[in-house]
């Protein structure tokens, strides 16, 4: 069954809201078990949800948390039972007393699973060039 724009938008909003709240369960619940992750801040692709979650739990154990996360300039491209969601992300995160502000571009691929859920199967995060930061602001 093909995905709809509303389904993808709702799935993306849930994922971003869970990230913004540093809600580990809800955030990782938005990804398929075999999801992959490419982050410019990591030396290699993360090959599964559990690999990323292990990294995330290491960060949060040190007190790391999201202070704010704003998504702008969203675009949804439907492709049958899958879709590509792209947006600009402005995040403030870090440990107490050591916050960092980032502006990035993100691509998330969503699919409809056999049980009908809409989950992310791939996430790619890259730094936003200065020109894109000016547009998103």
Helix and strand topology:
Layout: H1 5-20, H2 24-29, E1 31-39, H3 49-61, E2 65-79, E3 82-95, E4 98-112, E5 118-127, H4 130-136
Parallel strand pairs: 1-5
Antiparallel strand pairs: 2-3, 3-4, 4-5
InterPro entries: NTF2-like_dom_sf (IPR032710), SnoaL-like (IPR037401), Steroid_delta5-4_isomerase (IPR011944)
Domain SnoaL-like: 8-128
Protein name: SgcJ/EcaC family oxidoreductase
Task: Explain what you see.
This protein has 137 residues and is an alpha+beta fold. It has a single domain, classed as Nuclear Transport Factor 2, Chain: A, CATH 3.10.450. The protein has 4 helices and 5 strands, in the order ααβαββββα. It has helices at 5-20, 24-29, 49-61, 130-136; strands spanning 31-39, 65-79, 82-95, 98-112, 118-127. A hairpin with a 5-residue loop joins strand 4 (98-112) and strand 5 (118-127). The longest helix has 16 residues, at 5-20.
Low-pLDDT residue intervals, each spanning 5 or more residues: none
Strand order in space, largest sheet: 1-5-4-3-2
The top-level CATH class is Alpha Beta
Strand content of the residues, in percent? Answer: over 45%
Protein name: SgcJ/EcaC family oxidoreductase
Domain SnoaL-like: 8-128
Pfam families: SnoaL_3
């Amino acid at each position: 069954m093909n995905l709809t724009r509303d389904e993808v938008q709702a799935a993306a909003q849930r994922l971003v809201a869970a990230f913004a709240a540093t809600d580990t369960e809800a955030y990782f619940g938005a990804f398929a078990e075999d999801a992959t992750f490419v982050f410019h801040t990591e030396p290699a692709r993360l090959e599964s949800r559990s690999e990323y979650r292990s990294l995330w739990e290491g960060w949060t154990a040190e007190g790391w948390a999201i202070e704010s996360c704003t998504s702008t300039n969203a675009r949804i491209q439907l492709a049958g039972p899958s879709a590509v969601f792209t947006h600009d992300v402005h995040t403030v995160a870090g440990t107490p007393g050591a916050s960092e502000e980032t502006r990035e571009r993100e691509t998330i691929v969503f699919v409809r699973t056999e049980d009908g859920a809409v989950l992310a199967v791939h996430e790619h995060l890259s730094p936003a060039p200065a020109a894109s930061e000016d547009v998103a602001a």
